[in-house]
């Protein structure tokens, strides 16, 4: 239990007779005994807020800090528990107590009031402030903040099983590429991408997504995030400043479109996917959707809806942006052909290697209708002159050699087992939750009865217990009616998934108690 | 000499008694004898313009086409010569005659007038039209066009010796990286770049550019082109819509800034670099410059000018964007410290691996003043979520292991020998030319007396002879007074350089004769 030797306080000494710690130069001896816990909690919160205790740093062991400050170990334990309930620290015991979240704004830093002279209006009850990534409306750096917040079990959606990344095959392909590449290919290149990868993508899309295309149609990009920016820029120059989106739908996608000046009128999604009647009513001239596996609900765009949507595009000349982010991953259902395969002139198709291999590759492809092609090439040229050549060549090699296909089959088996583990754990630990969208993809969504606590509170309580998830409400523009959580399962082992969902069960009960207290 | 077996016309037959070729279905039998050359030239120009004869395709051997059309071989030879002088085709003899340049605009396509019924206002004299990349004002895709135009000897500036790219070291570093990388590093990452590369860049800049920085100051980007876009976006949001530039100065840089909505007021450059008095007079709040080796003149920003420039920044609060594109390459002069090392609060420093290793890596670094840092990180996030992780890790490995340093020393020796070869060849073949900026970098600029032909004509004549260069006037916003050529020498062998400069001598004489004829 005693990990003081590895704690941040290692080497600290109690200096002579003065009660105090070298850790943050804490001194609470002069504070009346009844307010010492408040003072200590306030000091620690301030240190977390102003960066002296950065996310990831470790608090001293309770025994050590108690000895330094000459207070009871119980007092320190109580203070740590408050911070834990706030979601600012996590862990205990052998792993130590670690800072997991700083308040989002510097304004929240001064919870102790002015200076250190007296105990300020400290959050004596944990419900008074929950300075976690889930406390405020998510800002534009929310995903960076969440990512840099450590957690024992990370169930954020959006990544495949990264441990399956074919390192050996990648290296073999890179060796082959480097052996054969002409020197000129290391100079400035075609902003549309290398001919080899554009050809490989055409073959891949023909085989797996039913899309017929020519390499000249393909623009290689740095992932779907870049695609959204390029599309928004080109549409803006075309006078289109609103791109309708699914609701619920990806928060990250909306943030990207907003950054590039596009409004995102929400269009409701039901069990057949986006409501095309509602899309028509928005008057939007472009719509972005995830027809193969809607994010986050996981529904598939139904046959009648597809026809309606294509009719909308033909009638209005509207542009459909098809974000085919995880369509290669499916388990219990037949493949759904891409919209692009049905109406190439109205569909701008975006796919990427992020869910096939790894997001860190930053490689994707965009197939635009002819009317936008030239403008998108120009946008890519002036974004970055085109993607790096070597990774393009390596990916092309993996696609054309059949390695990627083999990997995809392997990953599908692994992902399916993981999905089954999540569902079983939800049945056990969250019996009141409904599971959505589990037939395909890398994540599923669970929703709770409307009376359950807000999902941001659930997510905060889960993070305080070391489990990271997305609250469904992040992805909803309008109130969704039910709290929910989006669980990415592909990158975790069945054991981690079972444990993670068990923690969500605890979090639900804790948040429920807290809501109950709050209401009492 | 007879390469008809390998020509595009292979397999064509003269069909019965009708004089005509399967090649483009050419028929000129009914055209009066005196106008046949005009007609044939017009038909070929039209086919090049409309894409039936794409760049890189081969014309039939003169003997074969003459036989098919039942005209004299001399007539076909004359027509090919006209196209060669226009810069539309190149080569002859064993290599065949190859299409090297299509006209820039489709409007230029109809040189034969309306349809094929009669001989239109064909350019009977080669001087009437020069549909090469150099014929019109360069458009936004000029560098793509020029790159895709084949040439025997490519002297376009901007690339190091690509044959020196350390393929084995790169692969070794990649193996080491893949062996040690945690799986989580393959997920979404910090948009600022990996900590390893940011640290390696800090060490590199401290060693070679005199810059003291913290890894937190470094933003990893996809090369300087991306940096320009990010900076222009951030300045625009700050109300700054003009970035003063050096004149002459890089055309590509100006195109990027214009794409992002920034005007580029020109500031003259003299033998001490940018004229700071003229910069003050523009009233611009930002300036982009290349102080270590001005592009394209190669001058170094003098000591007094540096002080003036820094005073301008302090006085006006203006931003200096320092494009340190090739500062690691120097031969006969001491290193010039970066402006960033003198006034970090006012200098946004951009460097890249493009001239150190290869442009195809698309990797660079940006060090911004604190006031712009957060906005630039956001701009990078919404551009592409950050650079790919593996190449960052590999580059960091090469920087920290000393491999890149060894390579830089090797390249310096090689580049110096190449530079010496160009200078010697210029003395021999272009004795009237003055050489500028040869003490450092990867290119030098030569200028001719004012009476020499326009440099776009020189460049076109050189391209027609298989040698690709940039005309200096491309890089000048205001008339520069002297025609000139920018010669990139780093990627060519001394033999190629000598031959290339000899061809420039021929081109100069040919363009001179043509100008003389035009004036007669």
Verbal overview:
The structure is a homodimer. Residues about 1-20 and about 105-130 of chain A have low confidence and may be disordered. Chain A has an eight-stranded mixed beta sheet, sandwiched between helices. In chain A, strands 12-13-16-15 form a four-stranded antiparallel beta sheet. In chain A, strands 1-2 form a two-stranded antiparallel sheet. The longest helix of chain A is centred in the C-terminal third of the chain and has 27 residues, at about 405-430. The first copy, chain A, is globular and about 75 Å long. Chain A has helices spanning about 35-50, 60-70, 75-85, 140-150, 165-180, 195-210, 225-235, 250-260, 275-280, 305-315, 370-385, 390-400, 405-430, 455-465, 495-520; strands at about 90, 100, 155, 220, 245, 265-270, 275, 285-290, 320-325, 345-350, 365, 435, 445, 465-470, 470, 485-490. With about 525 residues, chain A is an alpha/beta fold. The first copy, chain A, contains 15 helices and 16 strands. In chain A, helix 5 (about 165-180) packs across helix 12 (about 390-400), helix 7 (about 225-235) packs across helix 8 (about 250-260) and helix 13 packs parallel to helix 15 (about 495-520). The first copy, chain A, starts with about 35 loop residues before the first helix and ends with a helix. At the A-B interface, helix 4, helix 5, helix 7, helix 8 and helix 11 of A face helix 4, helix 5, helix 7, helix 8 and helix 11 of B.
């Amino acid at each position: 239990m005693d990990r003081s030797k590895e704690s941040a306080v290692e080497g600290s000494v109690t200096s002579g007779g003065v009660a105090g710690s070298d850790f943050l130069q804490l001194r609470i001896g002069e504070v009346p005994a009844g307010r010492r816990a408040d003072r200590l909690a306030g000091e620690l919160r301030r240190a977390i807020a102003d960066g002296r205790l950065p996310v990831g740093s470790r608090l001293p062991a309770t025994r050590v800090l108690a000895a330094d400050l000459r207070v009871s170990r119980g007092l320190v334990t109580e203070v740590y528990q408050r911070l834990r309930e706030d979601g600012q620290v996590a862990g205990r015991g052998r792993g130590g107590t670690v800072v997991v979240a700083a308040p989002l704004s510097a304004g929240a830093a001064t919870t102790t009031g002015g200076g250190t002279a007296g105990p300020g209006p400290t959050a004596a009850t944990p419900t008074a402030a929950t300075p976690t990534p889930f406390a405020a409306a998510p800002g534009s750096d929310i995903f960076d903040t969440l990512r840099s917040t450590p957690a024992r079990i990370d169930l954020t959606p959006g990544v495949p099983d990264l441990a399956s990344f074919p390192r050996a095959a990648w290296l073999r392909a890179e060796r082959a590429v480097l052996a054969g590449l002409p020197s000129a290919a290391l100079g400035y290149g075609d902003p549309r991408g290398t001919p080899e990868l554009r050809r490989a993508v055409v073959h891949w899309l023909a085989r797996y997504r039913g899309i017929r295309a020519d390499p000249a149609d393909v623009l290689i990009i740095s992932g779907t995030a870049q695609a959204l920016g390029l599309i928004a820029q080109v549409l803006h120059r075309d006078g289109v400043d609103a791109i309708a989106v699914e609701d619920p739908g990806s928060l990250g996608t909306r943030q990207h479109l907003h950054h590039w000046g596009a409004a995102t009128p929400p269009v409701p999604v039901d069990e057949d996917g986006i409501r095309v009647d509602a899309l028509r009513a928005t008057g939007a001239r472009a719509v972005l959707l995830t027809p193969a596996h809607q994010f986050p609900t996981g529904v598939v765009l139904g046959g009648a809806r597809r026809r309606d949507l294509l009719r909308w595009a033909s009638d209005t000349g509207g542009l459909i942006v098809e974000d085919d982010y995880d369509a290669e991953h499916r388990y219990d259902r037949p493949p759904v052909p891409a919209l692009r395969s049905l109406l190439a002139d109205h569909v701008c198709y975006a796919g990427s290697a992020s869910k096939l291999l790894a997001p860190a590759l930053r490689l994707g492809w965009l197939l635009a209708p002819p009317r936008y092609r030239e403008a998108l090439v120009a946008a890519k040229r002036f974004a970055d002159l085109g993607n790096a050549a070597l990774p393009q060549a390596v990916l092309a090699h993996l696609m054309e050699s059949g390695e990627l296909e083999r990997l995809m089959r392997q990953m599908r088996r692994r992902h399916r087992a993981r999905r089954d583990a999540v569902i079983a754990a939800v049945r056990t630990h969250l019996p009141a939750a409904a599971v959505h969208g589990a037939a395909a993809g890398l994540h599923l969504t669970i929703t709770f009865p409307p009376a359950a606590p807000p999902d941001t509170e659930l997510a905060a309580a889960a993070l305080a217990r070391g489990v990271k998830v997305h609250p469904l409400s992040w992805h909803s523009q309008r109130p969704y009616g039910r709290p929910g959580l989006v669980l990415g399962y592909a990158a975790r082992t069945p054991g981690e998934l079972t444990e993670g969902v068990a923690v969500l069960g605890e979090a639900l009960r804790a948040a429920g108690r807290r809501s109950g207290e709050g209401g009492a």
